[in-house]
Amino acid sequence: MAKKRIGSRTVKLENGPVIISTSSIVGPKEAQGPLKDYFDIKLDDDLYGEKSWEFAESKMVQTVVEHAVKKANKTIKDVNYMVAGDLLNQLLSTSFAARAVSIPFLGVYGACSTMAQSLSIGSMLIDGGFADLVAASTSSHYCTAERQFRFPLELGNQKPMTAQWTVTGSGCSLLSSQGNGPKVKYITIGKVIDEGITDANNMGAAMAPAAVDTIYSYFNDTKDDPNSFDMIATGDLGKVGMQIAIDLLKEKGIDISKVYTDCGVEIFDLENQDVHCGGSGCGCSASVFNGYIYKMLKDKKFNKVMLVSTGALLSPTSTLQKESIPSVAHAVIIANE
Amino acid sequence: MAKKRIGSRTVKLENGPVIISTSSIVGPKEAQGPLKDYFDIKLDDDLYGEKSWEFAESKMVQTVVEHAVKKANKTIKDVNYMVAGDLLNQLLSTSFAARAVSIPFLGVYGACSTMAQSLSIGSMLIDGGFADLVAASTSSHYCTAERQFRFPLELGNQKPMTAQWTVTGSGCSLLSSQGNGPKVKYITIGKVIDEGITDANNMGAAMAPAAVDTIYSYFNDTKDDPNSFDMIATGDLGKVGMQIAIDLLKEKGIDISKVYTDCGVEIFDLENQDVHCGGSGCGCSASVFNGYIYKMLKDKKFNKVMLVSTGALLSPTSTLQKESIPSVAHAVIIANE
User: Mutating which of B90, B218, B309 best tests the A interface, going by the most A Cβ atoms within 10 A?
Assistant: First the structure.
């Protein structure tokens, strides 16, 4: 068996790629939420000076990559790979940001699981000796996602209470083979799981089984203790999906309830911000991880966390063709020494 | 510098991941082309028994993954990762194929550069000690791509002579840490290059500078000799882009003309199959590499090849927003011992 594999699905990173810096940017609504003090850049205007929301989102990606590099006292030329993607068709915002920064580019798509996916691939490229510095990034924008996946905003459509609110935000982690900071220790890559949910306004229920499969695999492979974590954070299951994840894991004999939260539940004030079940979108776990969680690790308020970004891999085309929602979740375990 | 890096952009794979098997599948038109004897599976009907072209494409992906695994006398459970993507929004065909095969899944998007991208990531995961067996795959389908990127086929739109024909095809390479077969030796990951071309019916001209940037970087990093290759094959620049690539590389002092071809030019009979500048689509370099090139390596008719799949990262949305076409190309060097 490959020397870094543990159990059936998990890998152990022997050299512990270091997250030497992060950057996060959010839109006006997210900047009013409970995590507002943790984000690096808060936009007053979700057009960000651009001619369209798509290119505003692209500028957000470019901004966090450049900002994370600058915070680490590095230059763009030092970065060996940009591993990144977003929710838009053909990764529009990421592709154009990659053009702007001119870093060798590996585009990834995992819907809202992208932050954990780009962190995973980036970490393995460093741990495997292929890179010294990797920028792992993703983004989403309420206005671009809504018009692509659901309806033009101008229609003013109502959503059911199980729906989530796509976060306008982006985040970048700068992974390094050297330096100081929290280290990526283990990675469990998810399988595509589909329990037959067809309601695109209930993504939490669709994605929860994928999160459960990945979290269970990690604990089964490593025999680690859930309570050794300061936080286990799913990407964005929202309020409904979060409870499903807790229940399904308890049925499998794993109780994460003491340390568990969801980025989609953390980023908004669910009582007062009219976001129904919470935040969603690649930018949700990206901004919560690179804003809040990373800083808690860096300040030694957290010692060990698991980020499990979750993605729903449906497309409007597959939905029209009456298919249910395939989902995926990847787990990244990050700890201080 | 990370121990496997050479020069500014290239990595050397010390453990030489082995391509132990491949599988290729093509549609009826490709099955009448010059490479027809090299493809494993040739479809009479491009719906492949499914209810839509999208799910026909998805079944093609599933078929080549399962077929490559079977040819190597392995089982699906032995495969640690599926690294794959396609041209469709949200990687529709790949996501649903990943659901069917249930292999831990890393979705990638690089437009028509995807075969080289999935081979690159898969090879680094094996060489880095994270996996024993990786399925690297991609696909495209004339009917799904045309209606997503251009016009519904029913309209019968005409194309200019610079346009290319999207290949209906899929291919999978099964990468292994052990076994016999050609090995992946070097990888050069591309930057996103955009020289301002805005004509989506002239993708070859848009993508050629990206191919040139990557090929030049490889030779600059390694000081390798172009004529040491039996074949350097770009992904799908077509007839026009191919000539541009030769000319631009000559200007930079590198002459690849003796060993150079393009998968888009090879897969069709350009004189008689009415495909204008040649084939395109992720499935083009996927079927040509996994069908023709791999077999030439396996039979020792080729000893050393470079696959440079090229991708145009435009989206219909960015085109409507008057943006030019960003492109990317990745180079994978494969050789017998």
Answer: B90
pLDDT at B178: 96
> What are the chain B neighbours of A314 within 8 Å (beta carbons)?
90
Supply the pLDDT for residue B145.
92
**Each residue of A164-215: pLDDT tens digit?**
999 999 999 999 999 999 999 999 999 999 999 998 888 899 999 999 999 9
Q: How many CB pairs under 8 A join A and B?
A: 192
CA of B59, closest CA in chain A: separation in Å?
A: 14
Mapped to the 3 state alphabet, what secondary structure does chain B carry? CCCCEECCCEEECCCCCEEEEEEEEECCCHHHCCCHHHCCEECCCCCCCCCCHHHHHHHHHHHHHHHHHHHCCCCHHHCCEEEEEECCHHHHHHHHHHHHHCCCEEEECCHHHHHHHHHHHHHHHHHCCCCCEEEEEEEECHHHHHHHHCCCHHHCCCCCCCCCEECCEEEEEEEECCCCCCEEEEEECCCCECCCCCCCCCHHHHHHHHHHHHHHHHHHHHCCCHHHCCEEEECCCHHHHHHHHHHHHHHCCCCCCCCEEEHHHHCCCCCCCCCCCCEECHHHHHHHHHHHHHHHHHCCCCCEEEEEEEEECCCHHHHHCCCCCCEEEEEEEEECC
Task: Read off the pLDDT of residues B260-286 as tens digits, 9 standing for 90 and up.
Answer: 999 999 999 999 999 999 999 999 999
